[in-house]
């Protein structure tokens, strides 16, 4: 088998929880994060339903003078990264050389901040635009801020592959570790899309769920009555380590990322290739990269957004890969909504917990499966001993990413997270310079 990479830390900010265990329990118990926007939220009256993550005090992750000039996506990225590093027990400089730890934190960037500044410019002219706009909203600033806070001086980047960005960040982290270019990678994605302009473009494209009296019923992956996705916000960060590095630290792991694959539909800016051929190839590439057979996969965590075309295309691809040996399949978005690129990281964490707990999470609101989505759907928590799982993430532009996660040996396996975790300190060097 190709060399595996250990997952030793998880940090999450999501509509259904802020630890891997909380998120997994919410999915299994059907505790939905979907709700009608509150009257004082900017989305009130704009969308019927959205998935809101909990508020974060920015002073817990940034020196106070800087909290006024950063987008929420940066704050969530910093929170998730600090939690992931604390969960892994890593302090940069003590547990890893600052030049041997990398950071890949992706996402769309601070579009809400850009939107607000455009309004100010229209009202006040050019002097109304903040000089801090770029460092407050650029897509690379999540990674940059994480590096500044923790003193990470190795490879740093941000990936812009829409809803595939979080999963691709994990894959690129695996690539770095296998190549020996880093010992540890902090990787993930943060997305804060809950503002009117972005919601309106999804709505005008008829991509959003609508017409549901009960907001918790609006996200319906693979269900015959599905009519769109539910937009959500959140962040997810994993700490990946070379197996030898994790073993030298004597730390246990949630899972191994044993393989990944990437393809492009080369078909349409927003619509998936209907025959699912590129997505199917992506899954096969991930299996080959992991050195496992289709029969080794015990569970598929589907992208499953609840859109008419996307769910059918993914189902077609899964059937093409697995045929009669179909593993159980589910999507967590029935309770979490779609956090864009961050979804892939949250779902990787759920996949790891499925193996750890021996329990497959269900797809909620799947009351009447669409015959065009003929899969082995998990509709209630299903006990199962699983050694390998496949997690899919697909993005606008035709980007397809599949991850294979594998269960470590019993001696290497993590126990459940303990919360609250200790606060990671603000990087003293950075704080002194502000």
**Most strands sheet:** 11 strands, mixed
Q: Which architecture does the CATH hierarchy give at level 2? A: 3-Layer(aba) Sandwich
Per the principal axes of the C-alpha atoms, what is the gross shape?
A: globular
Rg calculated over all Cα atoms: 20 Å
At the fold tier of CATH, the topology name is Peroxisomal Thiolase, Chain A, domain 1
Number of distinct beta strands:
15
Span between termini: 48 Å
Mean pLDDT: 94
CATH level 1 name: Alpha Beta
Estimate the helix proportion, in percent. Answer: 25-40%
SSE sequence, one letter per element: EHEEHEHHHEHEHEHEHEHEHHEEEEEH
Protein model, in words:
Strands 5-4-6-7-1-8-15-14-9-10-12 form an eleven-stranded mixed sheet, with helices on both faces. Strands 2-3 form a two-stranded antiparallel sheet. Helix 10 (308-322) links the parallel strand 9 and strand 10. 32% of the residues lie in helices and 18% in strands. Residues 418-434 have low confidence and may be disordered. The longest helix is centred in the N-terminal third of the chain and has 17 residues, at 72-88. It has one domain: Peroxisomal Thiolase, Chain A, domain 1. The protein has helices at 20-29, 72-88, 111-124, 133-137, 141-150, 165-178, 196-204, 243-249, 277-290, 308-322, 333-336, 343-357, 428-432, and strands at residues 5-13, 34-35, 50-51, 101-106, 156-157, 184-191, 234-242, 255-264, 297-301, 328-330, 359-360, 376-377, 382-383, 388-395, 399-406. It is globular and about 65 Å long. It is α/β, with parallel strands linked by helices. It is built from 13 helices and 15 strands.
């Amino acid at each position: 088998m190709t060399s595996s990479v250990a997952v030793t830390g998880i940090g999450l900010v999501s509509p259904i929880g802020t630890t891997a265990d909380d998120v997994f329990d919410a999915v299994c118990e059907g505790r939905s994060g979907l709700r009608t926007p509150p009257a004082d939220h900017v989305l009130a009256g704009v969308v019927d339903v959205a998935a809101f993550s909990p508020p974060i005090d920015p002073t817990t992750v940034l020196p106070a003078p800087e909290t006024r000039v950063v987008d929420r996506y940066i704050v969530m990225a910093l929170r998730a990264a600090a939690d992931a590093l604390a969960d892994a027990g890593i302090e940069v400089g003590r547990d890893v050389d600052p030049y041997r730890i990398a950071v890949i934190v992706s996402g769309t960037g601070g579009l809400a901040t850009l939107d607000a500044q455009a309004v100010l410019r229209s009202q006040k002219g050019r002097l109304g635009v903040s000089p801090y706009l770029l460092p407050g909203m650029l897509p690379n600033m999540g990674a940059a801020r994480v590096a500044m806070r923790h003193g990470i001086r190795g490879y740093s980047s941000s990936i812009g592959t829409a809803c595939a960005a979080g999963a691709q960040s994990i894959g690129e982290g695996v690539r770095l570790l296998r190549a020996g270019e880093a010992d540890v990678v902090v990787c993930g994605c943060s997305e804060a899309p809950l503002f009117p302009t972005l919601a309106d473009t999804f709505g005008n494209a008829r991509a959003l769920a609508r017409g549901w009296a009960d907001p918790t019923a609006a996200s319906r992956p693979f269900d015959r009555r599905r009519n769109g996705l539910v937009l959500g916000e959140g962040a997810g960060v994993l700490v990946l380590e070379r197996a030898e590095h994790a073993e030298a630290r004597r730390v246990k792991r949630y899972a191994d990322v044993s393989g990944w694959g990437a393809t492009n539909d080369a078909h349409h800016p927003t619509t998936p290739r209907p025959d699912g051929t590129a997505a199917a190839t992506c899954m096969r590439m991930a299996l080959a990269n992991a050195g496992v057979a289709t029969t080794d996969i015990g569970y598929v965590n589907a992208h499953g957004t609840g859109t008419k075309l996307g769910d059918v295309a993914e189902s077609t691809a899964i059937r093409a890969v697995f045929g009669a040996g179909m593993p159980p399949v589910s999507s967590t978005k029935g309770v979490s909504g779609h956090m864009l690129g961050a979804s892939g990281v949250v779902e990787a964490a759920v996949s790891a917990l499925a193996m750890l707990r021996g329990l497959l999470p269900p797809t909620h609101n799947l009351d009447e499966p669409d015959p065009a989505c003929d899969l082995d759907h998990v509709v209630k928590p299903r006990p199962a001993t699983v050694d390998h799982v496949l997690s899919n993430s697909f993005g606008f532009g035709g980007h397809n990413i599949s991850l294979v996660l594998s269960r470590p040996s019993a001696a290497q396996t993590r126990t459940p997270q303990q919360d609250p975790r200790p606060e990671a300190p603000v990087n003293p060097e950075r704080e002194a310079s502000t």
